[in-house]
Amino acid sequence: MKGRFPGYYRPTQAELDALWQEGTLVVLDTNILLHLYRVPASTRTLLLSILESLKDRLWIPHQVGIEYQRRRLGVIRDAFSASRRLLSDIEKAHEQFERAVLAAQPEKRGLRRIPAALTEIQTQVKRIRDDVHDAIADQLSPAADDFIREAIDALIGDKVGAPPESQEVLTGWYKQGASRFALQMGPGYKDAKKANSPSPKFFAGGLTFESEYGDLVLWKQIIQHAAKEGIKKVVFVTQDNKEDWWCRVSDPASSEAITQGPLQELAEEIRRDGQVDLFWMYHLQEFMEVASERLGINVSEEAITDVSMADKAAAALSATVLPGPISVLSKLRPPFDVSTHLLVLAEMDLTPYTVLDGFSVGTASDRPEHAVILTSHDAIWRNPFLASSAIAEILQDLNKRLELRTLDVYVMYADRPNLMETDRSLHFIKDALRRTRNFDEVTIWTCLLAPDGEGLELMASFSF
């Protein structure tokens, strides 16, 4: 059985041992390189030391290299801005707390210890501010020399794959991608929405690249390199969690899915077309834990947590402006009432289907399988019980429409929220949507009216 269907089998312990020995190609995804900008300095130093121990085995496809160079400054900017926004959030929270306490006139209520407690809180807040100032001082600025890129250059050197031979080769891969995506064959079909992004194509090195096929191109380049160089063992390290890379099984006991390993079709494809005997994939956290055992490098729980938190921050800071027909949204202003929702649905070429208090649903005639739910942060938290009931009623209605396969939920904000607020809304909607079974894909977006007048700025997303 295993000889006929090898992609369905996890490596044995002996095979996993072999993957950490000489002769294995360790391929890094773009998000691994970019994570070096998102984690604290101590964790970055640890990651670089792990990669340094594997320096002779490292390699990146050309697609990873070009994506890293294109996205690097944006990631630096986001991390730089987030550190400053944190300081502002701390100041705002402290001011609101102190104002609320003083407004209650505690001294008239016999609460004589309150002033001393406020003084102690002020002292603690000052310490926190000082710590944040220190962190900001260590944060790489977009205008500064990029010492992180220098470290990456030293690690990777010339171990970068060649670019596609021609535009014809790229176009051929894109045609394959369209066929694969129609069959939901990975990798990359979860990135199909990038075709509607503000920059669906870009030009580099005399070639035109299409963003939605980036994962497929890097995958083709891994296979191509392995076949050409006669490489028999390949490890791919990525922070991509989507189902177009991983075989995942839902866990009835929790809301989380259990990851089994890379998709069987990918394992079989690299074995067949790349002549690779052993292939495995690691998320960065697992890679760090295994490296700790295999390489004798001390990896703390704090470092693992840093990487996990960086994932959440990356989602919250992936600011993108929705393009095209909904640019009129820049003219909208709170409150996000039914009239606002109807305007949004119209600009998205959607027909209003259901309208409840604070929630609106639209469907598209040209995409009968797709539905959109619009709501706002205020509508959810004004009365969470009613919001949950509204979502349940909407889902009950949508579940009757068996043609619907995909669902987008947009949670709109009037003012830029902090990470805790967006995370709270994402989890509320996610938990409410767990009741549905009809949809193949659900994506929740939190979005802000863009101050530059270009539409909705996406702040975070979650797909399941």
Q: In a few lines, what is going on in this structure?
A:
With 464 residues, this protein is of the alpha/beta class.
SS strand fraction? 15-25%
N-to-C SSE string, H for helix and E for strand: HEHHEHHHHEEHEEEHEHHEHEEEHHEHEE
Question: Architecture of the largest domain, CATH level 2?
Answer: 3-Layer(aba) Sandwich
Number of β-strand runs: 15
CATH superfamily of the largest domain: 5'-nuclease
CATH topology of the largest domain: Rossmann fold
Give the biggest sheet: 7 strands, mixed
- Give the mean pLDDT: 80
The oligomeric state of the chains shown is: single chain
Number of domains: 2
Low-confidence sequence ranges: 316-336
- End-to-end separation: 32 Å
The backbone outline, from C-alpha atoms, is globular
Helix content: 40-55%
Structural class: alpha/beta
Number of helices in the DSSP assignment: 15
CATH hierarchy class name of the largest domain: Alpha Beta
Blueprint (SSEs and pairs):
Blueprint: H1 13-19, E1 24-28, H2 30-38, H3 41-53, E2 58-59, H4 62-103, H5 114-138, H6 147-156, H7 167-182, E3 201-204, E4 207-210, H8 214-229, E5 233-237, E6 246-250, E7 257-262, H9 264-274, E8 278-282, H10 284-295, H11 301-316, E9 320-321, H12 338-347, E10 351-356, E11 359-363, E12 370-376, H13 377-382, H14 384-398, E13 406-413, H15 419-433, E14 441-449, E15 456-463
Parallel strand pairs: 1-2, 1-5, 5-8, 12-13, 13-14
Antiparallel strand pairs: 3-4, 6-7, 9-15, 10-11, 11-12, 14-15
Helix pairs in contact: 2-4, 4-5, 4-8, 8-9, 14-15
Protein name: PIN like domain-containing protein
Pfam families: PIN_8 (PF18476)
Organism: Stenotrophomonas maltophilia (Pseudomonas maltophilia)
